[in-house]
Write a structure and sequence with these properties.
Blueprint: H1 12-20, H2 39-42, H3 45-53, H4 55-60, H5 64-72, H6 85-96, H7 99-106, H8 116-127, E1 143-147, E2 150-153, E3 158-159, H9 163-167, H10 169-177, H11 190-207
Parallel strand pairs: 1-3
Antiparallel strand pairs: 1-2
Length: 217
């Protein structure tokens, strides 16, 4: 069961390690509560968000899944959380992307070490002027970012301007690297993942009016 945490929540990888890990595992079996590997396949995002926010309210609503879990785990209620909707969404995305297993396995290079050339490669991969080694569509086929005064490219998959702030460094590497539609069945390499992450960090900082390295064109 999760432990309440203050409003200034950390990235989803830290949230899981510090606030979920005492009662849950990811792929290592049941603990005080259920193993969370595959939970995003078993439950809808809407249900998970409601459960994370307030398991007690979900149980009291008469939800059959909630009541079954409550009974199975010795009527131990998971404490209600003060996470923001964005924090809950990031945590669910983190679990869907492979959770702590992937973060521990990859141990990605931190985007703060990127050069201007790395950021430029990431920009090319994002907008499709650089082709990923495994093929597939560019990020901009579905996603947009705000760079400078402009909003560019697709909106089907949502705005990634502040993806770096939302996910933080390690978890964002996992999210970027996993196969997604329409890049089904393909994965970016570690180097390509790093470059895209570096670009998203640059865009995030630029949008927040923080100093940023100029991107070579």
């Amino acid at each position: 069961m999760l432990v309440p945490m203050p409003a200034h929540a950390a990235d989803p990888a830290t949230i899981f390690a510090v606030k979920c890990g005492s009662c849950h595992t990811y792929g290592k079996g049941e603990k005080v509560g259920p193993d969370l590997k595959g939970v995003t396949d078993r439950r809808s995002r809407t249900w998970l968000a409601a459960w994370i926010r307030s398991s007690e309210r979900t149980i009291k609503s008469g939800d059959s899944v909630a009541m079954s879990l409550f009974k199975k785990y010795k009527q131990e209620r998971m404490p209600d959380q003060n996470f923001s909707p964005a924090e809950i969404a990031a945590l669910i995305d983190f679990l869907a992307a492979g959770g702590p297993v992937e973060v521990d396995r990859v141990r990605p290079r931190h985007a703060s070490t990127a050069t201007a050339a790395d950021v430029a490669v990431g920009r090319g991969l994002f907008f499709g002027t650089v082709t990923p080694s495994t093929g597939g569509a560019s990020c901009a086929a579905c996603h947009m970012v705000r760079e400078g005064a402009s909003s560019m490219q697709g909106t089907f998959g949502g705005d990634l301007t502040h993806a770096y702030t939302r996910f933080q460094d390690a978890a964002l590497s996992v999210v970027i690297r996993r196969p997604c539609f329409p890049r089904v069945g393909t994965m970016l390499t570690a180097e390509e993942t790093f470059a895209v992450k570096a670009f998203l960090r640059y865009v995030d900082g630029q949008d927040a009016a923080r100093p940023a390295t100029k991107v070579p064109r």
